[in-house]
Known about the structure:
Elements: H1 2-12, E1 24-29, E2 32-40, H2 50-60, H3 62-77, H4 87-103, H5 107-122, H6 127-160
Antiparallel strand pairs: 1-2
Helix pairs in contact: 1-2, 1-6, 2-3, 3-6, 4-5, 5-6
Amino acid sequence: MLYWLTVLERCRGLSVPRSPLPIDTIKIRDGAPDLLEVSKFDESGLVYDPSTLAELESVFGRVRLMDLLSHLKSEIAQRLLAPETDRSALRHDAHTLLSVSGSLGFFELSRRCIEMEQACLLGIDLVAPLRAARSAAKGAIAAIGELEACAIAATTEACAA
């Protein structure tokens, strides 16, 4: 896990990326999301969970994990582009992203997509959930880009040594 916690610090003098907005999540009541009860998920506002990345790296190896993150970045870039009037497309995009981003430790994006999907299904206003989901998507893309750059730099350093 130390690798993922420090990769950005070593490469660019940065800390683990943080969300620009507080992370809100939907409370689950009786097995169903309750859109009216929103609570803080993570005070630190991390864009991704370094411990999840470390666990995935131990299972798949760094090369495969970086490949998975690259595919996630491409997937994110193709989603949530529809206008807010296209609830069906936005719901589908949110549903797709919530599972893939969550499985790779990008919990903010996953939770924002849960909010987006539920808003689409319930027919409530999409402006705030769509803005939050798009913001989380941009943060995830930026974080993956930083991880990729640092992984390349770390590989280059190791090869030079």
